[in-house]
């Protein structure tokens, strides 16, 4: 009889120990914030669909030069932008000749010659650009990254010129053979007739003479769960343990990898310092690896563009910028704010292997968006604002963007001008 009682007592103790272990593992401090109401969270482990790299490679803007110092700008997802880009994708460029950027009078070409300038921001490796354009590069050009393509006509010249700008800044590559006629270029330029005229300032940026209309939007928002991220990023999510941080963030680790969550900014940082390096690394290969990694670990919760492939001391940083908007008003980048990081996916790679992965945990319900049209400042008023700003440092770029803001359980995207100065400072004008 005593043996039976002992057995029952032992069984109860074991059962109690299991219950206690459960609460220690799944009800640790901070875990309540990861399991909120059903209304705030989606049920799938994926944050969005997979994406092909080709859909992430496109110019952030097109500058149409019409001669006589007249210019206009087309942005992604506008009718003429899409039409011109699709046509250029079907044309071939061959026999690239390496030349100094000083060999050209760019101010004269900009103001007197009809042409199309495609801006790729921080640049795209040529081997990736080949995926969306028909290029036949030699080994020298193939190793470059391109931040601009300028296609233009010259007076009394029977052929169109196509120049590709290296991100190095001092070298360009001109295609001796371009499957474009002078008439093709002029037809594309004519799309800019009767549209808003932009004034070129020092050849660096463009100020519109009339209002630029954008869509301000407010959408219901929620947050992906920590459990979803653990499931996406750890081989065995059940083996992770929780470590609270003094700054209020939370860390989950399986002793090799770590997932840090900042609840205030709804931001996650994943680190895998023990990842085995693949060995072979180039900007293009690292960008492809980064796309594959996002496809396999969450997906794409919106429209993104490859923004940069920057090389650090021991790693390469690859970033993807989120765009929002559609025709006819266009699509524009969403820029992060100090108090709200949203609209960008950052990865670091070491020798071809992802070692760091950062992104927002927020999602929005676009089908429930409330929209209204707003106009950005223009003309003399905008020029006056920029002149005052440039007293500290010259203005390098002016671009319409969205600033994200949280309003209760909704996310607002507010249209503003982003002003980039030559010293690297970024400001906004609303």
From TrEMBL:
<dbReference type="Pfam" id="PF07435">
    <property type="entry name" value="YycH"/>
</dbReference>
<protein>
    <recommendedName>
        <fullName>Regulatory protein YycH domain-containing protein</fullName>
    </recommendedName>
</protein>
<dbReference type="InterPro" id="IPR009996">
    <property type="entry name" value="YycH"/>
</dbReference>
<feature type="domain" description="Regulatory protein YycH">
    <location>
        <begin position="3"/>
        <end position="422"/>
    </location>
</feature>
<dbReference type="InterPro" id="IPR042274">
    <property type="entry name" value="YycH/YycI_2"/>
</dbReference>
């Amino acid at each position: 009889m005593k043996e039976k009682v002992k057995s029952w007592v032992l069984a109860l103790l074991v059962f109690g120990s299991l219950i206690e272990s459960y609460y220690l593992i799944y009800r640790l401090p901070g875990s309540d914030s990861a399991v909120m109401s059903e209304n705030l969270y989606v049920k799938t482990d994926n944050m969005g669909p997979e994406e092909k790299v080709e859909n992430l490679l496109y110019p952030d803007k097109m500058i149409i030069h019409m001669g006589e110092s007249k210019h206009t700008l087309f942005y992604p997802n506008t009718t003429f932008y899409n039409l011109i880009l699709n046509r250029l994708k079907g044309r071939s460029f061959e026999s690239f000749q390496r030349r100094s950027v000083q060999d050209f009078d760019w101010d004269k070409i900009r103001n007197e010659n009809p042409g199309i300038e495609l801006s790729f921001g921080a640049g795209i490796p040529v081997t990736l650009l080949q995926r969306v354009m028909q290029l036949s590069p030699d080994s020298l050009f193939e190793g470059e990254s391109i931040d601009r393509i300028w296609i233009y006509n010259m007076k009394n010249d029977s052929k169109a010129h196509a120049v590709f700008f290296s991100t190095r800044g001092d070298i360009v590559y001109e295609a001796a053979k371009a499957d474009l006629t002078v008439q093709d270029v002029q037809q594309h330029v004519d799309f800019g007739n009767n549209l808003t005229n932009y004034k070129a300032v020092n050849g660096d940026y463009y100020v519109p003479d009339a209002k630029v209309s954008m869509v301000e939007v407010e959408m219901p928002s929620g947050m992906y769960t920590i459990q979803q991220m653990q499931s996406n990023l750890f081989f065995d999510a059940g083996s992770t343990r929780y470590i609270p941080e003094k700054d209020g963030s939370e860390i989950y680790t399986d002793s090799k990898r770590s997932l840090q969550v900042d609840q205030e900014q709804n931001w996650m940082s994943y680190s895998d310092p023990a990842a085995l390096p693949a060995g072979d690394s180039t900007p293009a290969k690292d960008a492809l690896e980064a796309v594959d990694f996002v496809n396999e670990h969450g997906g794409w919760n919106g429209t993104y563009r490859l923004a940069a492939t920057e090389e650090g001391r021991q790693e390469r940083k690859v970033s993807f910028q989120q765009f929002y908007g559609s025709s006819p008003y266009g699509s524009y980048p969403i820029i992060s704010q100090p108090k709200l990081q949203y609209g960008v996916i950052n990865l670091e790679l070491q020798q071809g292997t992802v070692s760091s992965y950062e992104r927002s945990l927020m999602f929005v319900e676009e089908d429930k968006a409330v929209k209204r049209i707003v106009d950005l400042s223009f003309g003399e008023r905008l020029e006056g604002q920029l002149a005052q700003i440039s007293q500290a440092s010259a203005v390098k770029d002016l671009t319409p963007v969205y600033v994200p803001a949280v309003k209760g359980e909704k996310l607002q995207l507010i249209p503003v001008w982003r002003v980039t100065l030559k010293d690297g400072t970024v400001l906004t004008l609303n």
